Amino acid sequence: MLDKVRAAPEYIKVEKKKSEMVGIVTLNRPPHNRITLPMMQEALKAVAEFDADPDIRLIMIKGAGEDFGRGGDVEAILNCKGWEANQFFMTVVQVAKSLRAAAKPTMAVVHGWTTAASMVTAMNCDLVIAADNTLMGATAIDFGLLCPWGPISIMPRIIGPKRSFELGATGELVPADHLLAHGVVNRVVPLKDLDAAASKFAAEITCKSPTAMMLHKKTFYAAQDMEYNKALDFGAAAMVQYHMTPEAVEGMKAFIEKREPNWDIDGYTSDFGVRRKSG
Q1: What is the pLDDT of residue 266?
Q2: Which residues of 6-28 are buried (b: 16+ CB within 10 A; e: fewer)?
Q3: Which of 206, 222, 251 is the last residue of a domain?
Q4: 225 near 262, Cβ under 8 Å?
Q5: Candidate ranges 67-81, 183-197, 241-255; pick with highest mean pLDDT
Q6: Do the beta carbons of residue 53 and residue 23 sit within 8 Å?
Q7: What letter would DSSP give residue 64?
Q8: Over pLDDT 90: what percentage of the chain?
């Protein structure tokens, strides 16, 4: 299935870096990567296939050209008729949900304008590394629409309601240093170093126990919607579940013996299936 996506991608590029255990989906409508329905459909398929690929431990989302993305293609949105508009906007939601729901960590690598629906895509990744020229904003308000996901659904959980309302109402563009200060992105690096820094950041994740990483992500998001004491209990249950795996034993032994762990696992998939090393 993965080779089928690679064969003739029209609006994305798909790259599998097996040695780094990273799958890369690059939005490819330069210079501004205006989002269309076919682009989102291709991205959905690529994310699902990387999530099911046992060779991949992290899924990376990038943008080709000057920007990560300037949101939806306004002309395409204007031409949506009836049910087409529902399909377009609900597919934006599906892409966002797929990045959050993927068993494997997802990382957005952003630069330039990262606005409207493109910002939503980035913010729904588990991690975001940004070039120092990054500008984020809910700019849909500037062309007669509103941005119901970023400033309404996601940003209030990160930066609070007052600032989120203001950003959604004004379309203000927020620079990278402010995004870092408010916890919207994880790291900011010079534009020229972005790809190298993203690869290094990914390596910090992919070297860890794959099963622990999957459980970390699953537990993290499940706990966000729980009452505090229930979240603590849920975390303990996840820890017990992981403690029974060969990876947990190997990880603790490696720590005690002061050596690098040799994970028994060779790959894993979105359904929590694992591929063990032979021999």
Answers
A1: 59
A2: eeebebbebebbeebbbbbbbbb
A3: 206
A4: no
A5: 183-197
A6: yes
A7: -
A8: 67
